[in-house]
C-alpha cells in the first residue's frame, strides 16, 4: 500500500467535495463555493492518497482569517495564535486503520513551528465516544462548549498546547524565520489581492 500525504490540488476538489458530503452527520456539508474558499484560504489543506485513490483530507486555518465559523470565531476571541482544524474526513474504506492519527501527526508538525496551540471541536450531539477518546488520547483538553445555532448542536471546544513552539520561536522565528526547506514551506494557494501571504510566526489582529 503506497500512502502519500500532500497538499490538495484543484483536480482533487470534486473528489474532496463528494467525500465530505458522504461523511454523515459528524461532518457539516459543503457546497462548491465553500470548498473553493478553503482551497484559496486554508493554511493547511492536505489529502491522503492511497494507491492513487483519495482516502481522506484535513483542512486547518490559522488565526486572523475572515472565516465565519462560530467555532473558529470562538477560538479567535480567546487565543491570539492557533491552528484550527476545521474538518478531517476519512473515506469509509480506510477508516479504523490509523489514517486519522497520521493526519493529526502531520498537522501537528505544521502547527508546532508556527503557533503555540492546536484547536478543534467535536460534536456532543450526537456524541461519538470513539472521536472523543481519540482526541483525549492525542492530548486535547476541553476549553469550552457552545451550541451552534445553525445546527442546534452542542460542541466541545478542544485545544492542545504545542510545547515545541517556544523553542522554535526563540531559535528561529525571532531571528529571521524558519529554514528554507520543503517540509517547512507554506502551501501554494490563491489569495485575494488585498490579503498578503502570511509567514510562520506572524500574528494578525
What does the radius of gyration come to? 17 Å
Specify the CATH homologous superfamily. Answer: Gcn5-related N-acetyltransferase (GNAT)
User: How many DSSP helices?
Assistant: 6
Helix percentage range: 25-40%
Q: What order do the helices and strands follow?
A: EHHEEHEHEHEEH
Structural class: alpha+beta
Any guess at the CATH architecture? 3-Layer(aba) Sandwich
Strand content: 25-35%
Kindly report the average pLDDT value. Answer: 91
Q: Within the CATH hierarchy, at the fold level, what is the topology?
A: Aminopeptidase
Indicate the overall shape: globular
Domain module tally: 1
Spatial sequence of strands, sheet with the most strands:
1-2-3-4-5-7-6
Please characterize this protein's 3D structure.
By secondary structure, the chain is α+β, with helices and mostly antiparallel strands. It has a single domain (3-184), classed as Aminopeptidase. It is built from six helices and seven strands. The protein has helices spanning 13-21, 32-41, 70-78, 99-111, 129-137, 164-173; strands at residues 3-7, 44-50, 53-62, 83-90, 117-123, 141-148, 153-161. A seven-stranded mixed sheet has the order 1-2-3-4-5-7-6, with helices on both faces. Strand 6 and strand 7 form a beta hairpin. The relative contact order is 0.15.
Amino acid at each position: 500500500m503506497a500512502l502519500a500525504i500532500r497538499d490538495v490540488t484543484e483536480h482533487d476538489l470534486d473528489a474532496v467535495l463528494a467525500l465530505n458530503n458522504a461523511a454523515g452527520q459528524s461532518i457539516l456539508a459543503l457546497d462548491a463555493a465553500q470548498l473553493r474558499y478553503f482551497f484559496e484560504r486554508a493554511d493547511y489543506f492536505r489529502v491522503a492518497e492511497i494507491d492513487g485513490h483519495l482516502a481522506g483530507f484535513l483542512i486547518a486555518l490559522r488565526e486572523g482569517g475572515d472565516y465565519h465559523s462560530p467555532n473558529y470565531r470562538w477560538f479567535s476571541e480567546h487565543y491570539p495564535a492557533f491552528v484550527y482544524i476545521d474538518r478531517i474526513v476519512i473515506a469509509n474504506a480506510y477508516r479504523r486503520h490509523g489514517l486519522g492519527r497520521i493526519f493529526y501527526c502531520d498537522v501537528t508538525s505544521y502547527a508546532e513551528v508556527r503557533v503555540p496551540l492546536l484547536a478543534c471541536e467535536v460534536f456532543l450531539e450526537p456524541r461519538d465516544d470513539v472521536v472523543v477518546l481519540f482526541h483525549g488520547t492525542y492530548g486535547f483538553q476541553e476549553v469550552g462548549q457552545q451550541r451552534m445555532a445553525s445546527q442546534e448542536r452542542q460542541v466541545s471546544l478542544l485545544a492542545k498546547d504545542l510545547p515545541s513552539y517556544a523553542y522554535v520561536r526563540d531559535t528561529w522565528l525571532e531571528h529571521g524565520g524558519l529554514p528554507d526547506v520543503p517540509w517547512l514551506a507554506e502551501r501554494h494557494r490563491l489569495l485575494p489581492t488585498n490579503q498578503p501571504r502570511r509567514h510562520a510566526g506572524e500574528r494578525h489582529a
